[in-house]
UniProtKB/TrEMBL annotation:
It comes from Limnobacter profundi. Pfam families: HMA (PF00403). Monomer. This is Periplasmic mercury ion-binding protein. Belongs to the MerP family. CDD domains: HMA. It comes from the Bacteria. Residues 1-20 form the signal peptide.
Amino acid sequence: MKKLFASLALAATFAAPAWAATQTVTLTVPGMTCATCPITVKKALSKVEGVSKIEVDYATKLAVVTFDDAKTSVQALSKATTDVGYPSELKK
């Protein structure tokens, strides 16, 4: 019986996925110069795997992004906006 439990515990260790956490970050996007810029930024962020929610505000030049940190990272989010002409970085 002990071997069975040990085998199951070992199998669970290797079979269990890494626990992902949902994170919300705020990116500064200073290059947004018109009211339509947020549309491009939001579209770029929406294509990043793991992103579940995006709010982009032209007036404050901020993008608030909720994502699964097992699927993407802040660096990938920033790259997505940069690739469409709007460099961004994590708000400090």
